[in-house]
């Protein structure tokens, strides 16, 4: 890896986890579309997975008393199936098509966030946990981006903000553990990955610290618009990279 590639790698990790520190989600959706320009998708996704475990473990532990266990138990079975399917696809399908799918997914989530109105969110039944868990598991394993799917489900199930934040953090943490197992079984966890992760870890922590500081200073509308701009640029970049392979 060249010096410029190292700079892109460490800058992407710092930026992605600064976003996570500000918003509580979005790290993979920011980092992966950037990293695929210098790393294979099947390397970039497990790398972000290892960073996610570090980023979410403290949040999940601190807020565990607010976790709604019933929602976790509803989502986990289909989530596990989705993770296994996604990991299998990631290890076997040509990355160009997956990058195009990643770009389309990121752009779709950005457009949804831009046009969505808070008042439009209506409660839904627990039966939606099956497709939500399955889709979230597949996208988590393929791109590290299952968080928006879980968010769409839990936001309509848990009106209490503390319960919602705690449960989504616990779910993402458990998803990361499940993906680790699936990636190990499918051969996506290799020794160079851990070496790169150790090199990136200080920048992940730096981004988390910077994001937590900015969260108190940047108005939420400005943070939201910045995130949408980053996601849209990353999505377009991922589609371009996929078409060029």
UniProtKB/TrEMBL annotation:
GO terms for cellular component: plasma membrane. Its main location: membrane. Pfam families: TauE. The keyword Chloroplast does not apply. It is found in: Cell membrane. Keywords: Cell membrane, Membrane, Transmembrane, Transmembrane helix, Transport. The chain crosses the membrane at residues 6-36, 43-61, 67-90, 97-115, 135-155, 196-214, 226-243. InterPro entries: TM_pro_TauE-like (IPR002781), TSUP (IPR052017). It is a multi-pass membrane protein. Belongs to the 4-toluene sulfonate uptake permease (TSUP) (TC 2.A.102) family. PANTHER family: MEMBRANE TRANSPORTER PROTEIN-RELATED (PTHR30269:SF32), TRANSMEMBRANE PROTEIN YFCA (PTHR30269). This is Probable membrane transporter protein. It comes from Verminephrobacter eiseniae (strain EF01-2). The lineage of its organism: Bacteria, Pseudomonadati, Pseudomonadota, Betaproteobacteria, Burkholderiales.
């Amino acid at each position: 890896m060249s010096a410029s590639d190292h700079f892109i790698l460490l800058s992407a990790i710092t930026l992605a986890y600064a976003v996570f520190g500000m918003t509580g989600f979005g790290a993979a959706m920011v980092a992966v579309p950037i990293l695929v320009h210098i790393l294979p998708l099947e390397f970039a996704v497990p790398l972000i997975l290892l960073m996610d475990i570090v980023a979410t473990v403290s949040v999940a532990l601190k807020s565990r008393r607010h976790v709604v266990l019933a929602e976790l138990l509803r989502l986990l079975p289909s989530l596990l199936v989705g993770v296994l399917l996604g990991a299998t696809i990631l290890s076997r399908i040509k990355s160009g098509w997956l990058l195009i799918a990643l770009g389309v997914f990121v752009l779709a989530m950005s457009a949804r966030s831009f046009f969505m109105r808070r008042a439009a969110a209506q409660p839904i039944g627990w039966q939606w946990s099956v497709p939500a868990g399955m889709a979230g598991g597949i996208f988590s394993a393929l791109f590290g981006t299952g968080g928006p799917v879980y968010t769409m489900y839990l936001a309509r199930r848990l009106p209490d903000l503390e319960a919602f934040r705690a449960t989504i953090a616990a779910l993402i943490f458990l998803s990361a553990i499940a993906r680790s197992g699936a990636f190990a079984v499918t051969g996506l966890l290799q020794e160079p990955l851990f070496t790169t992760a150790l090199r990136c870890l200080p920048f992940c922590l730096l981004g988390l610290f910077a994001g937590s500081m900015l969260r108190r200073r940047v108005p939420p509308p400005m943070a939201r618009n910045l995130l949408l701009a980053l996601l849209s640029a990353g999505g377009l970049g991922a589609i371009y990279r996929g078409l060029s392979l």
